[in-house]
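Hi V.,

Quick status before I head out on leave. The structure for the redesign project is tokenized and pasted below; the design run finished overnight.
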């Protein structure tokens, strides 16, 4: 994969496959990439350690640009309630959903949250992910939102995957601000803008600010207020948009020049046109639709054909998408949203990297970029989504270091 980023339209399907290829890695970066014979004839490769991947498929490491990595416990009980007929929104109104996670997170220690996240990060690596975005948003008090962001900062230092931190204090209006006297949702918005965002910036706790702008969460007006305050503090902008209802959040993302608008299941033709003419990455999260048992997925085909920047991510979270497998997301994208395997791979690598403003360093296998890659034990890249629910990743490398190997470090 090489060439300009982001990828729009037909370019999304251009993987630039090199058969019998090789990479030369120096100091954690790609020094050369070409046919194996050419790489082997370079003078610099004479003293290089050789890692033979034996005919496997090598991709850029996956970039998972939307996760809620730090949470206190699974919500398997709610999963069963939903199977029994309760909707996600009904469960949330009854104190379940995000309220449930927030209640438990407030009582959890940083150590417990970190141990759980570390186990998940190891799993991300076994599925070929080398960079992920991670949001706060299960705290909904300053103390606990900060706790999540600090855990993420510590995790970045203590394990090999790159983590991009996003502040999502506006995930949901906490129960204590639900229209009690003097404590309204608007008062919560003001608290975020006046007190929390300045502190996030001051302590450098996050690079992005996200808002869940949807029915039952924050309105477009509230989201604009928060994003405006975030931008003034130098944060990049992301939005959970148009998942449960069409609210105008996608148009807000365009208006605010957000880095990414995520979900987009309910967007209109007009929204698609506006997004296609913008530099907003449209991050589709089909794991959510699958887990919630919905028939309607995001309009990937229409977005791609209109020329929008399309990315894919897991939305790893305990309520609506408890998967950290990008290969599984590729399967959903292909079978349910009619993306081709090549389009899905570009969406989960270079375009996802673009949405995180890291496309100059990661997301493709090009000279000068970090040697972040994943090897799959398949004969053809299309088999990665084709064999759904099976993890064929056998080796994951982060900046030239092997961080996961199914069978040891390979045949030398
Ligand atoms: Zn999310």
């Amino acid at each position: 994969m090489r060439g300009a980023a982001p990828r729009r339209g037909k370019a999304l399907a251009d993987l630039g496959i090199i058969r019998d290829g090789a990479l030369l890695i120096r100091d954690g970066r790609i020094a050369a990439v070409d046919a194996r014979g050419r790489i082997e004839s370079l003078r610099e490769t004479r003293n290089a350690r050789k890692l033979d991947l034996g005919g496997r498929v090598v991709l850029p490491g996956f970039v998972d640009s939307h996760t809620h990595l730090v949470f206190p416990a699974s919500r398997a009980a709610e999963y069963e309630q939903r199977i029994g007929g309760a909707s996600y929104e009904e469960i949330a109104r009854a104190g379940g959903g995000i309220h449930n996670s927030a209640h438990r997170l407030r009582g959890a220690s940083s150590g417990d949250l970190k141990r759980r996240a570390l186990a998940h990060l190891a799993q991300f690596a076994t599925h070929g992910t080398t960079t992920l975005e991670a949001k706060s948003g299960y705290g909904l008090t300053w103390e606990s939102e900060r706790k999540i962001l600090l855990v993420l900062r510590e995790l970045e230092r203590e394990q090999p995957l790159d983590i991009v931190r996003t502040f999502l204090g506006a995930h949901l209006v906490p129960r204590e601000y639900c229209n009690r006297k003097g404590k309204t949702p608007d008062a919560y918005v003001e608290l975020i803008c006046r007190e929390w965002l300045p502190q996030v910036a001051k302590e450098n706790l996050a690079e992005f600010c996200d808002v869940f702008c949807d029915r039952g969460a924050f309105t477009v007006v509230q989201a604009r207020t928060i994003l405006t305050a975030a931008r003034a503090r130098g944060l990049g902008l992301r939005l959970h948009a148009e998942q449960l209802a069409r609210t105008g959040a996608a148009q807000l993302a365009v208006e605010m020049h957000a880095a990414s608008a995520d979900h987009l299941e309910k967007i209109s033709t007009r929204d698609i046109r506006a997004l296609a003419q913008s530099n907003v990455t449209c991050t589709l999260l089909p794991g959510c639709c699958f887990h919630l048992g919905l028939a309607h997925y995001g309009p990937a085909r229409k977005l791609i054909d209109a020329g929008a920047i399309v990315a894919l991510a897991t939305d790893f979270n305990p309520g609506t998408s408890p998967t950290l497998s990008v290969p599984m997301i590729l399967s959903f994208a292909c079978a349910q949203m009619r993306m081709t395997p090549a389009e899905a791979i570009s969406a989960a690598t270079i375009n996802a990297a673009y949405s995180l403003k890291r496309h100059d360093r990661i997301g493709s296998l090009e000279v000068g970029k970090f040697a972040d890659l994943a090897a799959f034990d398949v004969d053809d890249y299309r088999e990665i989504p084709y064999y759904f629910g099976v993890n064929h990743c056998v080796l994951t490398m982060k900046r030239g270091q092997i961080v996961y190997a199914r069978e040891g470090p390979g045949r030398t």
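Above is the designed sequence. The mean pLDDT is 95.

G. will cover questions while I'm gone.

Best,
W.
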